[in-house]
Design a protein that fits this description.
It is found in: Cell membrane. This is Proton glutamate symport protein. By secondary structure, this protein is mainly alpha-helical. It has 20 helices and no strands. The protein has a single domain, classed as Sodium:dicarboxylate symporter (Proton glutamate symport protein, Orthogonal Bundle).
Length: 423
């Protein structure tokens, strides 16, 4: 397999996993063999994410060393995230209104799935507001936040610690050297773990297909196709325009990230590619300080794919029940999702939890989510790609906005990858 690149190996794992899952559809034995492989791969990635985020942010922030400059970067980043996610929500509502994916589907042909595991965590989001998000950013106990994987609290501590290291000058240099070493070691570990990716992808997709089967997609094919079309439109048109404004070719970026996009799609997990995203964006010319702050923060505040999906899914369920949603109700839905979709990325089944907490507020039966829970994984794969791609572009946008983007580095890296011809 060595002569094949990682992307081809992952694609091979994906295809074989789908085939094995389809052959053993309805046979629970296959899950006992494959699930441990998939779980080990996800655990390996989760194991290195927090050390990479902490070390990258500490090194990046200490390099900036200026509270005012960092505050400006934070403000600009949140503003950019809010604009892009709002566009994603509006686009989702437009697509659902124009194509009506839930109209004309008889509920008796839909397979209903148990969603109690999502209901159990919904209370975390039910009264979730901006104030709660900002209070929860500050950890009361760092070790508790590390154990829970609470990314916003970890980012806050890392930023404050980085500023503290910068403030003590010469005394902070050994600390900075240590974290720089940790960062390099973690990226080296990432490259080793990625060799296991094709096997992890094979196991994860095999379990999914063996559980739900290919035939479970047919009644909901209109919704699945619409979600995929909307996601592609968002990347090519919306993010394409943003990339054009900042002078980046969206297709070049797509080729740079092809391994990560395929891995994110196969595993339906953004976490699996976080270490490589930070590394590749720095190689592409983004500032280390900007990249190490923007990408981890985007994993909580810039979930473009998730917000786009939530808008479509909410209207799909309304249409399924024959509920008319006037413009006023859709504006309420938009505003509610703008609040509930922020800062809860660590919650399991995040998009479902957000929707469960939101639907009741706008008069849509939350039980309707049970009809799409079985195929949610297929749509989760697409929204994960959009989340990953959106956050990569955000690192470029913010680096250029801060005038900390190295165009020569970008050109050299694109030539190295044979994306643009060498002279």
């Amino acid at each position: 397999m060595k002569k094949f690149g990682l992307a081809w190996q992952i694609l091979f794992g994906l295809v074989v996993g789908i085939a094995v899952g389809a052959i053993f559809y309805g046979n629970p034995t296959i899950e006992t063999y494959l699930k441990p492989l998939g779980d080990v791969f996800i655990r390996l990635i989760k194991m290195i994410v927090i050390p990479i985020v902490i070390s990258s942010i500490v090194v990046g922030v200490a390099g900036v060393g200026d509270t005012k400059k960092l505050g400006k970067l934070g403000g600009k980043t949140i503003l950019y995230f809010e604009i892009i996610t709002t566009i994603a929500l509006i686009l989702g509502l437009l697509f659902a209104n124009i194509f009506q994916p839930g109209s004309g589907i008889k509920m008796d042909v839909l397979q209903k799935t148990d969603i109690t595991k999502y209901v159990d965590t919904t209370h975390q989001v039910g009264s979730h507001g901006f104030a709660d998000t900002f209070v929860n950013i500050v950890p009361s106990n760092l070790f508790e936040s590390l154990a829970k994987g609470d990314m916003l609290a970890i980012i806050f501590f890392s930023v404050m610690f980085g500023l503290g290291v910068a403030a003590i000058g010469e005394k902070g240099k050994p600390v900075l050297t240590f974290f720089h070493g940790v960062s390099e070691a973690m990226f080296s570990m990432t490259n080793q773990i990625m060799k296991f990716a094709p096997l992890g992808v094979f196991a994860l997709i095999g379990v999914t297909v063996s559980k739900f089967g290919i035939q479970s997609l047919i009644p909901l094919s209109k919704l699945i196709i619409l979600v995929y079309v909307a996601m592609i439109f968002f990347i090519v048109v919306v993010l394409g325009i943003v990339a054009r404004i900042v002078g980046i070719n969206i297709f070049h970026l797509f080729r740079v990230l092809k391994d990560e996009i395929l891995l994110a799609y196969s595993t339906a997990s953004s976490e699996t590619v976080l270490p490589k995203l930070i590394e590749k964006m720095q190689k592409l010319g983004c500032s280390k300080a900007v990249t190490s702050f923007v990408i981890p923060t985007g994993y909580s505040f810039n979930l473009d794919g998730s917000t786009l999906y939530q808008a479509i899914a909410a209207l799909f369920i309304a249409q399924l029940y024959g509920i008319h949603m006037p413009i006023s109700a859709q504006i309420t839905l938009l505003l509610t999702l703008m609040v509930t979709s922020k800062g809860i990325a660590g919650v399991p089944g995040v998009s479902f939890v957000v929707l469960l907490a939101t639907l009741g507020a706008v008069g849509i039966p939350a039980e309707g989510l049970a009809f799409i829970a079985g195929v949610d994984r297929i749509m989760d794969m697409a929204r994960t790609v959009v989340n990953v791609f959106g956050n990569s572009l955000a690192a470029i946008v913010m680096s250029k906005w801060e005038k900390e983007y190295d165009k020569d580095k970008e050109t050299a890296y694109l030539k190295e990858l044979n994306i643009i011809p060498s002279k």
